[in-house]
Amino acid sequence: MMTDNLDFSIPIDEFSFSGGVAEMIYGESKAYNDIGAYLAEEIKALMEEYELPIFEPENKIRATVIGAGSFSLSVSGSTCYFDKSILFPLENIPVINVNILKENFSPENLEKEVNRAFKRFDMQEGGDLVALYFKDPIHRSAYYLPEFAKAIEKALPNSISKNMMIILIFGQDMGGSVGIALRRETAIQSNLICMDELELEEGDWIDIGAPLYSGQAFPVTVKSLVFNKNKNSS
Question: At what angle do helices 144-155 and 175-185 cross, to 10 degrees?
Fold first, then answer.
C-alpha cells in the first residue's frame, strides 16, 4: 500500500467505476477474451444485491493501474561473462528464482529446482526466455564450479539444443567464474550471459543494457510491483 487505508466511516452517496472493466459494467465495451466480462457481471450483480447507487462518469479511464509498478536501475558486479555476439538491450525478461543454496546443492537438486522454477510460472524450458536467479548456490571453488556447470547443462537441454539465450544471474560474486566453467565444461558455447551481485525477487522483470567498463558490468533496470516485496520462495 502506498497510501493510508480508506476511511469508510463517512456515508457514500454514489459509486463509480473506471478502467476497461468499467466499460463493460456500463455496457459500452466488447469482451476481450479475458476475465473482464466475468468480473463486470459479478460487480453489477453485487451492486444490485446491495442496492448501491451507481454513477456513470463521462470519462471512465481505460487503464487504472497507475503507480502499481516501480522501476529501479542497478549495475551488476564487475565479474560478468557474456557472449559478445549478443545484441543489447534485452528487454522485459522475467526473473524466476531457483531455490538452490550451498546447503542443498547437488547436481540432481539443481536440475529438479530448475524444472520447478519453470513450472511455477507456467513457462517452458526451451520455449520461454527467462533469467534464472541464484542467490548463493555453491561454494565458489574449483571443485564445485565444474559440477555446477554440468548440472546447468543437464537442466536446460531444450534451450541448448535450440541455441536459445541462457541468462544466469547470481546474488554473489561468481558470474565470471560460472561463465568460464560453462564454456569449458559444457556444450554451451554461445548465447550465454552470466551476471552477479544483483538483488532480485521472483516476479521481477528486467531490462539489460549494453555492457559498461569494457564489458565487465551491465546496467539493469528492475521492474517490480509495489506489493511484490517480502515474498517467500515456494
Answer: 70
When pLDDT is cut at 50, 70 and 90, the band that residue 7 belongs to is confident
Closest by CA to 139, choosing from 86, 87, 102, is 102
- Cα–Cα distance measured from residue 36 to residue 27, given in angstroms and rounded to the nearest whole number: 12
pLDDT at 139: 81
Give the DSSP letter string of the chain.
--SPPP---SPP--B---SHHHHHHTT-S---SSTHHHHHHHHHHHHHHTT--B---S---S----S-EEEEEEE--S--EE-TT--S-EEEEEEEE---BGGG--HHHHHHHHHHHHHHTT--TTTS--EEEESB-S--STTHHHHHHHHHHHH-HHHHHTT--EEEEESSS-HHHHHHHHHHHSS--SSEEEEES----TT-EEEE---BTTTTB-EEEEEEETT--SPPP-
Sign for the CA dihedral angle at 15, 21, 23, 28 comes to negative
Pairwise CA distance, residues 17 & 33, whole Å: 21
Fold adopted by 69-225: Glucose Oxidase; domain 1 (3.50.30)
- Return the domain boundaries, the chain: 9-66, 69-225
Of the chain, the percentage scoring pLDDT greater than 70 comes to: 91
Kindly tell me if the per-residue pLDDT of 66 is higher than 60. Answer: no
Count of other CB atoms within 10 angstroms of residue 51 = 6
Residue 163 amino acid letter: N
